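hiii, so i know i said id send this last week but things got crazy w the move. better late than never?? heres the sequnce for the chain we talked about at the cafe, plus the structure i predicted for it. fair warning i was half asleep when i ran it
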Amino acid sequence: MTARPQPDRAYDGTAARMLPLRPFRAVRYAPERVGDLAAVLGPPDDVPSAELAAALAAQHPYHCLHLEVPDADGQQFTQAARRYRIWRAEGVLQRDAQPACYVYAHRFALEGVRFERLGVLLVASLDPVAGARLLPHEGTTTELVERRLRQLEAVQAHAGAVYAIWAGDGALRQALEAIVRDEPPLWSVTVNGDEHRLWAVTGARAQELAALATSRPLVVADGHHRYAAAQRLAERARVSDPSADPRAWVPVHVVDAADPALVVRPIHRVLSWLPCDWDTLRAHLARHAAVDSLTPRPLDGVVQLAGDLARSRRPHVLLLHRQELLAVELPTGADGEPDAVVVDRLLLRHVCALDQATIERVATYTPDTSEAVAAVQSGRAVLAVLLRPTPLATILARAQAGQLLPPKTTYFFPKLPQGIVFYDLADPLTLG
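okay and structure toks below
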């Protein structure tokens, strides 16, 4: 059941096509064909490896990750393309009858507190002159952009969307709350304790939502490589009519910056190797930052300290080594640099003298404090660097100033599950 437009306010398709953000006709799972939707949606988190993605996909013949498994040689993408077209032909995936904005509610728990984040799925124009104001906040790697581009060219569909923050003051959240309150959802499923609900908003109300989303800049929170690959695809396609060609648009999931459930988590650094003994590194670090040795604590104690750190206004980090626990007050970064940037420059590159290739080999990253601490306490890692989260205000300000942050500086939680809606790049009716 779709959300009902007001009968006295007609949908103006011509006006909608003039907006750089607009409704679209999503392709969605047919519940009567797949059964429990919870069994086919992708997890709201990163899948760390192709092997794990394949294992998750193998749990259901229609799992959305069948279309998204990372691929080195192109064979998997070819299979994914064939599978997607079969799903369309057999009615496993069905295109909606009219353009809509899709309101998505995600209810989740973090540290024992329940949140509900509201967002809206639309499509954003990739026109370099008149397109949507989508501002990246961190850089991309060429290899990952190329891989995503190969996937899009093969499958001709997005199973996910760019996650973007509406740089506003709460008006979008209020509009979404009204829809959630007034209209029945298309579906509601619970996966691992998280509740997911979806609404299709059509007619004049969809046009109003698109206009509201267009009124402020959008800062890309997650999906930078998807966005960059979509831009490359649009450039290669050389479409003659961008307003009607799906390849000239990209699906975006827009969340109000004032949404109380918009969470940015830290990304901790975990090192499996250090270039010299701990005492030497500790002494070198003390010449550049205030270092305070803390009483060694069990896992729960370190996690509690890290939680206190996350709420602190002082720029400092915790270093957990096999020998001791340190609180390190960071020197103030230039122009409000996030702690992660200062740590990577001061600790990893200067004190530890690690080059980029070595960092990529010995460093892993996690937003899970318990996981980082356990890695050191179990002996699987030598050092854990526990950071504060990067403030949302800092992310938005730097993005709007055109200042990109390095990868692994921010972690928006939770991510957008894949498979909620699909965006078909080859269907001429996708844009209505």
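btw The first strand starts at residue 21 and ends at 22. thought thatd interest u
miss u guys!!
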